[in-house]
Amino acid sequence: MSFDFSVKGNQFIYNGEPIQLISGAVHYFRVVPEYWEDRLLKLKECGFNTVETYVPWNLHEPAEGNFCFEGIADLEQFILLAQKVGLLVIIRPSPYICAEWEFGGLPSWLLQDKGMRLRCFDPHFLEKVDAYYDTLMPLLIPHLCTNDGPIIAMQIENEYGSYGNDQKYLQYIKKAMESRGVDCLLFTSDGPTDAMLQGGMTEGILATVNFGSGVNEYFDKLEEYQPDQPIMCMEFWNGWFDHWGEEHHTRDAEDVANTLDQMLQRNASVNFYMFHGGTNFGFYNGANHGGQYEPTITSYDYDVLLSEHGVPTDKFFAVRKVIEKYIPLKPLALPDPIPVKAFGEVQFTECAALLDSLQALSSPLERTCPETMEELGQDYGFIYYETTVSGPRKNNKLVLQDVHDRALIFLDDQYIGTVERWNPQDLFFDIPQHGCRLGILVENMGRVNYGPLIKDYKGITEGVRLNGQFLFHWTIYPLPLHDLSTLAFKKMTETSAMPAFYKGVFHIDQPADTFLQFSGWKKGVAYVNGANIGRYWEIGPQETLYIPSPFLKAGENEIIMFELHGTGQTSVTLGEAPMLAKKQLPAAE
User: Fold this and answer.
1) In the chain, fewer beta carbons within 10 Å around the N or the C end?
2) Are 213 and 194 in contact (CB under 8 A)?
3) Looking at residues 19-30, what average pLDDT do you find?
4) Contact, 364 vs 358, CB < 8 A?
């Protein structure tokens, strides 16, 4: 048995009947698996008939040839749950996804080949795509509508017209899917401009457009290029994402509802980007570079229909009211609320200084020049470079050529300043008669996920100069910080102004969602029971980190804060509400 989903004239046809797709994006990789069904049920109860998700290559092939489809990466389970709930599914498994996700979903190991050209008809790139699709596509094929599954459509590339115009490449990706058994509807999605549609559309593939407003103008533009076909907004931007140091983006619920109403009046189909944003756990946040580098925060709340922790917002009810004008809906029956609890203050009692822990966390490498993370086979996290400099030398100007993304500088294990990619201020210092050790701790704050600068190497990409003189012969410690179990903690007697790991434990009777309030802490990464729950930074707008209850357990729980700049705090608070506020970037040091 199979389900029929096709295009007939300007309509989508599902099992012989016209259907208007009302879809919402829920990224399985931004939501703990235990909550997938809850989010999908809420999507269904809002009146939606379809769920859409990207597929991030870097999550599923973290190292070349090493595939992962378990836990938060269990894509098949997510699809099966959508089918159980009664939703159709749109899958976007193009090699590149953007999504404010690290490197736009491309795996960092692609950058080990410096000659590789991304997102075009480069044989080296396509060879890697083929190997990935050889594993991914057989997992998706059984779930296509043609095989009695819920997947009705798949995307071949993502907003390609915003990047390039390689028609040979687009046709290659199309055939790569079809040759592996994909026989459902294929589509592209692009911005609604002449250049973007000319670059991103390709023969034999349905085109869709992405926008947040301007319904009639942009659908008219799509119909210029694609007459007598269904019109669909594949990304209706009903909210927006935040960079560190920005004000939290919001959009009025009635404005969103009115825009949706205009689309449904035109008999257009729509996919809300997002319906539920979720969280950039770990080091998976991306970054933009439209003039300067701008990393994305940990929260992907997006100000949409469900909050970061899955609570219906005003937009949920405003949108449902509009949908009910066009489709008969049953009385609202939401799942029981997921418990949220304030567990109170957690004291830190143990500490491990980073510079004392390098050997425990990493095996040092000797190199003539500083090398990037990618050259050393490292994906995310931090990297520490150290060399010796002879003296005496007066008034030395330090130049990092170029640093990606943020570097803390040390002389003989003493912090002397910070150099940021987006704020490359000069550092000057003297070197004594006996010389010194120069240490540089670089944080990868997320590879660029959109635009022409996505080929974004991390660490020190060229070299280090003092007064124009390159420094050679470095000891390098890769610090991906995936596993902190090798750290040797000591009893904490006082906080430090240097990078350090702080550990505390707390006891609870029953797990519940909670929010780590990091007021008084400056910048770093938080871990709960070994899980990296994301980055924090005092510049906001994010003021809490979301901890889903599956990260906790009854009894003893552990929090580790990797603080880069030191803090006078000896505790954090676990509260019951998220906080996203307006913050301004501090003045340069």
Assistant:
1) N
2) no
3) 98
4) yes
Tokens found for residue 52: 């859409």
Alpha helices per DSSP H over 312-406: 314-326, 358-361
SS3 71: helix
Q: Which two tokens stand for residue 371?
A: 């090398």
Q: In CATH, which of 3.40.50.1240, 3.20.20.80, 3.40.630.30, 3.30.160.390 is domain 21-240+253-280+313-326?
A: 3.20.20.80
Complete DSSP assignment for 425-441: --EEEEE-TT-EEEEEE
* Cβ(543)–Cβ(518) below 8 Å: yes
DSSP secondary structure code for residue 412 in this structure: T
pLDDT digits (tens, 9 = 90+) for 206-226: 999 999 999 999 999 999 999
| Amino acid found at 117 | R
Cα dihedral 483/411/585/571 (nearest 10): 50
pLDDT tens track for 462-495: 999 999 999 999 999 999 999 999 999 999 988 7
6: buried, middle or exposed (CB in 10 Å: 19+, 13-18, 0-12)? middle
| CA-wise closest residue to 325 among 258, 387, 249, 420 | 258
* CA nearest to 128, candidates 113, 142, 138: 113
Cis peptide before 18, with omega less than 30 degrees from 0?
Answer: no
Query: Do the beta carbons of residue 231 and residue 269 sit within 8 Å?
Result: yes
* Cβ contact 170:202 at 8 Å: yes
- Structure token pair of residue 436: 């010194």
**279 bridge partner residues:** 299
Residue 113 belongs to what H/E stretch? none
Dihedrals phi, psi of 463, to nearest 5 degrees: 180, 180
* Terminal CA-CA length for the chain: 66
CATH class, range 358-479: mainly beta
Least Cα distance to 423 among 400, 394, 440 occurs for 400
Q: CA angle, corner 435, sides to 430 and 438, nearest 5?
A: 75
Residue appearing with tokens 């809300």: 272
Active-site annotation, residues = 159, 235
3-state DSSP assignment of residue 403: strand
Chain-centroid distance, C-alpha 172: 27
Of 313, 304, 311, 306, the residue nearest 337 (C-alpha): 311
Burial class (CB in 10 A: 0-12, 13-18, 19+), 181: middle
| CA–CA dist 44, 316 (Å, integer) | 11
| Candidate CATH numbers 1.10.246.90, 3.40.50.2300, 2.60.120.260, 3.40.50.300; the one for domain 344-353+487-575 | 2.60.120.260
Q: What are the tens digits of pLDDT across the range 165-222?
A: 999 999 999 999 999 999 999 999 999 999 999 999 999 999 999 999 999 999 999 9
Taking alpha carbons only, the member of 484, 413, 9 closest to residue 229 is 9
User: Residue ranges per domain, the chain?
Assistant: 21-240+253-280+313-326, 344-353+487-575, 358-479
Q: Residue 235: CB partners within 8 Å, gap ≥ 6?
A: 25, 189, 210, 211, 271, 273
Reply yes or no on whether the pLDDT at 151 is more than 60.
Answer: yes
* Ramachandran assignment for 530, one of left (phi > 0), alpha (psi -120 to 50 degrees), beta (any other): left
CA pair distance 560, 18, nearest whole angstrom: 54
